[in-house]
């Protein structure tokens, strides 16, 4: 109780200071003074019209004057930051190294099909919910969401032909009832797990609070152990997912079902932090939603807001370094254009390029060496790599019987063991022991798909992979990496396709 009061008082103080209280900085304009939603415009399918938003290549002339901020990277993290600043009247330049904006939200076209690379489904898009309200305001209500089927996720343990299937229904009550029906002897464990998921997962807002509170207060709360008492999310951060679920049940299938969503954040149950898992599990409790028109709609509806405020989102703009002034403050970036390097200045620089790129590649060497930077770097490592198969199919969703749901296929119910032996195997044997496949049909989830690609469908299959298996070809060009590379890639692809054919046999000749 006292802890909460201290945190609340500090929060109010921090807000007071942030609003210019006590004679500090001047008040920032409110980025959301009114509801900015407009009725959604029709889907833009014209290639040139889309390219003029998503593929504006960098040139000196396109850089706006008097910039207020530069954002490195056009993933949704970067775009969302740029949109909020733009809505507050700031002029922002987003620089993207790739030829198309969107980062993990971008889509690509191949052989007459469109594929998304990173966003396969999003939770908590219930109309008028807090998260939906944020996304609606960030896209002026132009981004529409299609609700997926319930069950939204199907977990298969064993062979898809004769293994066990577990259904993850959408909605708290439906989800819990569904699990209890599938595990009638485990009702207490299910209640306890879902209670923990809700309580701990929803406490993730405490992490935001820690960013707002004055740093000395955060340090005090942490060093005295008060933080763990005030926030169950922070208190359980060092508990692994395996540790928590082993305390709830001995049923191996149920443990696998509780853990099924870990590939979305890429850390195995013995090594993942329970609060992170709870956050993601809770995120999908009400089901899944898909951005109508495909994932590229996210960037497509964000960029015009940045442009309207005088900013720009430019592609083919690899940032080489962050420029720093004599006081050690970021003051701009240098961008590579052909053989030239161009410096662009702004009082604020935001990096969406990830911690390793930002600290190890973009910061000047003397800053990289700072103890604060080194200490942050020592706490993180790269996540597991991924391998994706993109399948283009003849036939509509109805003709092929594709569904707006995801399959998580695990050949074994000990997910950790299966992953560890796979990741430790050689590249020659790995494809024979693939521990997990995520299978989903983006076209079946997209209510607007038929407008763009009538009579066609897509499937995406994802698994984990080790970078080292493919490292040998890192300097070679795409499509020119030779026979050995193709053979290795095909060994994974064929194994994954076999799994797809067990779930959707009707797509075999399509
Ligand atoms: C395979 C996969 C599946 C996923 N599925 C889902 C899902 O179903 N649901 C979900 O919610 N999330 C999913 N995610 C996660 C989600 O896509 C990401 O968390 C989110 O999109 C990350 O956004 P970001 O802005 O942080 O980074 P990114 O999208 O990675 O953007 C970073 C951008 O920075 C650019 N960049 C890097 N260095 C430079 C430089 N020097 N100069 C200029 N630009 C630079 C990159 O090119 C990139 O465009 C998935 C991710 C992956 C990889």
From TrEMBL:
Residues 24-46 are annotated as: Disordered. Pfam families: NAD_binding_8. Residues 1-20 form the signal peptide. InterPro entries: FAD/NAD-bd_sf, Retinol_saturase. It is an enzyme of class 1 (oxidoreductase). Keywords: Endoplasmic reticulum, FAD, Flavoprotein, Glycoprotein, Lipid metabolism, Membrane, NAD, NADP, Oxidoreductase, Signal. SUPFAM superfamilies: FAD/NAD(P)-binding domain. It is a peripheral membrane protein. It is found in: Endoplasmic reticulum membrane. It catalyses: all-trans-13,14-dihydroretinol + A = all-trans-retinol + AH2. Its EC number is 1.3.99.23, 1.4.3.2. Its cofactor is FAD; NAD(+); NADP(+). It comes from the Eukaryota. Belongs to the flavin monoamine oxidase family. FIG1 subfamily. Belongs to the carotenoid/retinoid oxidoreductase family. CrtISO subfamily. This is All-trans-retinol 13,14-reductase. The gene is RETSAT.
């Amino acid at each position: 109780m006292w802890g909460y009061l201290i945190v609340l008082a500090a929060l109010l103080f921090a807000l007071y200071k942030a609003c210019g209280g006590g004679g500090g900085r001047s008040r920032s304009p409110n980025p959301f003074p009114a509801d900015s939603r407009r009725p959604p415009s029709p889907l833009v399918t014209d290639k040139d019209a889309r390219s003029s938003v998503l593929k504006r290549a960098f040139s000196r002339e396109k850089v706006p004057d008097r910039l207020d901020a530069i954002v490195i990277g056009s993933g949704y993290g970067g775009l969302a930051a740029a949109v909020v600043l733009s809505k507050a009247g700031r002029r922002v330049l987003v620089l993207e190294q790739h030829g198309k904006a969107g980062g993990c939200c971008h889509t690509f076209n191949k052989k007459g099909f469109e594929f998304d690379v990173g966003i396969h489904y999003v939770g908590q898009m219930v109309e008028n919910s807090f998260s939906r309200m944020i996304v609606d305001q960030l896209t002026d209500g132009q981004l529409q969401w299609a609700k997926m089927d319930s069950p939204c996720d199907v977990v298969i343990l064993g062979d898809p032909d004769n293994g066990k299937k577990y259904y993850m229904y959408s909605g708290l009550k439906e989800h819990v009832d569904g699990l209890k029906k599938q595990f009638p002897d485990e009702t207490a464990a299910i209640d306890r797990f879902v209670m923990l998921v809700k309580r701990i997962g929803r406490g993730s807002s405490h992490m935001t609070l820690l960013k707002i509170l004055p740093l000395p207060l955060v340090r005090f709360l942490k060093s005295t152990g008060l933080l763990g008492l005030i926030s169950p999310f922070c208190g359980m951060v060092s508990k692994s997912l395996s540790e928590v679920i082993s305390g709830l049940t001995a049923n191996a299938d149920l443990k696998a079902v509780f853990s099924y969503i870990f590939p979305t954040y890429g850390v195995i149950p013995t090594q993942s932090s329970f609060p992170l898992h709870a956050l993601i599990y809770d995120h999908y409790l009400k089901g899944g939603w898909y951005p109508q028109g495909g994932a590229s709609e996210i960037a497509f509806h964000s960029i015009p807001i940045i442009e309207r405020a005088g900013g720009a989102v430019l592609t083919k703009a690899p940032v080489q370094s962050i420029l720093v002034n004599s006081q050690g403050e970021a003051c701009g970036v240098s961008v590579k254009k052909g053989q030239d390097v161009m410096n662009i200045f702004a009082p604020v620089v935001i990096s969406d390029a990830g911690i390793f790129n930002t600290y190890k590649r973009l910061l000047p060497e003397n800053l990289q060496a700072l103890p604060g930077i080194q200490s942050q770097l020592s706490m993180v490592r790269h996540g597991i790599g991924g391998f994706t198969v993109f399948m283009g199919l003849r036939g509509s969703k109805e003709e092929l019987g594709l569904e707006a749901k995801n399959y998580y296929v695990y050949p074994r119910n000990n997910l950790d063991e299966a992953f560890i032996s796979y990741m430790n195997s050689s590249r020659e044997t790995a494809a024979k022991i693939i521990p997990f496949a995520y299978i989903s049909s983006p076209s079946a989830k997209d209510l607007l798909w038929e407008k763009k690609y009538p009579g066609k469908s897509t499937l995406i299959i994802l698994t984990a992979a080790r970078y080292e298996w493919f490292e040998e070809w890192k300097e070679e060009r795409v499509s020119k990496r030779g026979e050995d590379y193709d053979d290795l890639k095909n060994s994974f692809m064929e194994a994954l396709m076999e799994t797809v054919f067990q779930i959707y046999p009707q797509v075999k000749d399509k």
